[in-house]
Write a structure and sequence with these properties.
The two termini are about 20 Å apart. With about 425 residues, the chain is an alpha/beta fold. The protein has 2 domains: about 1-30 and about 175-415, no CATH class; about 55-160, D-Maltodextrin-Binding Protein, domain 2. α4 (about 65-70) links the parallel β1 and β2 (about 80-85). It is about 70% helix and about 5% strand. The radius of gyration is 31 Å and the shape is elongated. The protein is built from 17 helices and 4 strands. It has a 4-stranded mixed sheet, sandwiched between helices.
Length: about 425
C-alpha cells in the first residue's frame, strides 16, 4: 500500500507543479471570472465608448417626428433626433461628411400609417436603427389604435402576454419550478463530466505513455503490481482534478459573490435542489471518472510515444462527445426512449442516468441498476485492463490495430 501512495502522490505533485497545469488553471480561472463579471465588463466599455448617435430627420408632413422623439425618451442617451429643414440630398451629404451618423426619412405609407427609411454610411452598427425602429413601431400602434377608437387599456390587454402554465398531474412528478432549479445542476454536471473526461483522461494516457517512453515503466512493473500502478495514477490525476475544480469554483464564487448576495441567487437556485440529487451528482461523477480514466490508462499503455496518445484516445473522445450530445437532447426530452436505453449503457450512464435522476422522479431500483452497471463495468475494466496494462507497458513500437490488445494480454500471461 505504501508503494501505491508513493506513485499516487508522485503523480499528483508532478502534475501540480507542471507548467501546463498552472497555465490551464490560470486561463480557466480568468475565463470563469470574466463570465461571472461579463455584465460589469460590458458596462465598463459602454460607459467609456458609447456616444449619442445624432440622426437627422426629414419629415415632409411633419406629423411623426415629435411622436418618435417621445418614444425615444428612455433611449435619449443613445439616439438624438435632429429635425432637418433641408432636402434629402443635403441630409445625405451631411451623413457622408460625418456630421450626422444617420438620416431618417419619415413618411406616410400606402395604408396611411407611418413608415421610415434609415440611411447611413454602413449598416454594420445596428444599435441606432433598432432603437428607432422600436420607437416607430410604437408610434404606428398609437396611430392605428387612435383611428380605430381603441383606448390605451384595451391596447395593453391585447399585447399583454398570454397566461400559460404547465401543471403535472402525477403527485411524484417535478414541478416546473423544481425542473428549472435542477436543470441548472444537471446541465452543469454533464458539462463537468464531459470536460473532465477529455482533459484528465488524456492526461492519464499521456502520463503512462511518458513513463513508458522513458523506460521507467519496466522498473515500476517489476516492483509494483499493475493494478496498484494503474489506479495510483488514476487517483493521483483525480486528486489533481479535485484541487483544480476547487480553485476554479472558489474564484467563480468570489467573482459572483456581490451579485449573488444582492439578488439571493444562491438561495433561490439551491433552495429547491434536494440533497439526494447533489449526492447522486457526486456518485455519477466519480463513477464516470473511474470508468473513463481506467480506459484511458489502458489505452495509454499501448503506445510507445506520447505523439501516439491522441490516436488511441480519439475513439474514446468521440464516444464522450456522443454521450454529451445525447444528454443535451435529453434535457428537453428526458422520457425519450433513446434516453432510457442509453442510461444503462456504461459509456453513457454517468451523464444520461444522472440527467434522468434530475429531471424525472425515478424509482430507486432504476437508479440502483445504473450504479450497479457502472460498478460492474469498472471492476471488469480493472481486471481486464490491469492485464492489458501489464503487457502493454512492455510493448514498444507503433500502434497498428486492436491486435495490440491481444499481444498485450499474451505478454501479461508470460510475465505472470
Amino acid at each position: 500500500m505504501n508503494k501505491f501512495f508513493i506513485i499516487l502522490f508522485h503523480t499528483f505533485f508532478s502534475k501540480l507543479r507542471s507548467k501546463s497545469f498552472i497555465i490551464s488553471t490560470i486561463i480557466t480561472a480568468v475565463i470563469v471570472a470574466g463570465i461571472a463579471n461579463i455584465d460589469r465588463i460590458f458596462e465598463a466599455f459602454e460607459d467609456r465608448g458609447t456616444e449619442v448617435a445624432e440622426v437627422g430627420v426629414v419629415d415632409e408632413e411633419n406629423e411623426y417626428t415629435a411622436l418618435v422623439q417621445e418614444q425615444l425618451g428612455p433611449f435619449s442617451d443613445q439616439v438624438r433626433l435632429t429635425p432637418l429643414s433641408e432636402s434629402v440630398e443635403e441630409g445625405i451629404d451631411r451623413v457622408e461628411q460625418g456630421e450626422l451618423q444617420g438620416l431618417l426619412l419619415l413618411e406616410e405609407g400606402p395604408d396611411g400609417l407611418p413608415q421610415g427609411i434609415f440611411k447611413a454610411q454602413t449598416v454594420a452598427n445596428q444599435q441606432a436603427p433598432q432603437v428607432i425602429e422600436q420607437a416607430l413601431q410604437q408610434v404606428k400602434i398609437e396611430v392605428a389604435t387612435a383611428r380605430l377608437g381603441l383606448d390605451e387599456e384595451t391596447v395593453e390587454s391585447i399585447y399583454a402576454p398570454v397566461s400559460f402554465q404547465t401543471e403535472a398531474l402525477s403527485d411524484t412528478a417535478r414541478s416546473e419550478e423544481e425542473l428549472t432549479q435542477t436543470r441548472f445542476l444537471v446541465n452543469a454536471l454533464v458539462v463537468v463530466i464531459y470536460f473532465s473526461v477529455l482533459a484528465y483522461g488524456n492526461m492519464i494516457a499521456m502520463e503512462v505513455a511518458t513513463e513508458k517512453s522513458s523506460r521507467v515503466m519496466e522498473i515500476l512493473v517489476s516492483s509494483v503490481s499493475p493494478v496498484k500502478q494503474m489506479f495510483a495514477k488514476i487517483f493521483g490525476i483525480g486528486l489533481l482534478g479535485i484541487v483544480q475544480y476547487m480553485l476554479i469554483i472558489l474564484i467563480g464564487f468570489l467573482s459572483m459573490r456581490g451579485s449573488m448576495e444582492s439578488d439571493g441567487f444562491i438561495g433561490d437556485m439551491m433552495s429547491g435542489v434536494p440533497v439526494s440529487l447533489i449526492i447522486f451528482a457526486l456518485v455519477f461523477f466519480l463513477l464516470g471518472y473511474l470508468f473513463y480514466a481506467t480506459i484511458s490508462a489502458v489505452l495509454g499503455s499501448l503506445v510507445s510515444r506520447t505523439e501516439e496518445v491522441n490516436i488511441v484516445i480519439t475513439p474514446l473522445t468521440m464516444i464522450v462527445v456522443v454521450a454529451f450530445l445525447i444528454s443535451m437532447f435529453g434535457l428537453n426530452a428526458p422520457e425519450s426512449g433513446i434516453i432510457t436505453v442509453t442510461s444503462y449503457i456504461p459509456f453513457f450512464t454517468p451523464m444520461v442516468m444522472f440527467l434522468r435522476v434530475g429531471m424525472l422522479q425515478l424509482p430507486f431500483w432504476e437508479i440502483a441498476l445504473g450504479i450497479i452497471v457502472m460498478v460492474i463495468s469498472i471492476v471488469f475494466l480493472a481486471l481486464i485492463g490491469a492485464r492489458i496494462y501489464k503487457g502493454g507497458v512492455l510493448m514498444y513500437g507503433k500502434v497498428s490495430s486492436l491486435k495490440d490488445i491481444k499481444q498485450a494480454l499474451a505478454l501479461s500471461k508470460k510475465e505472470s
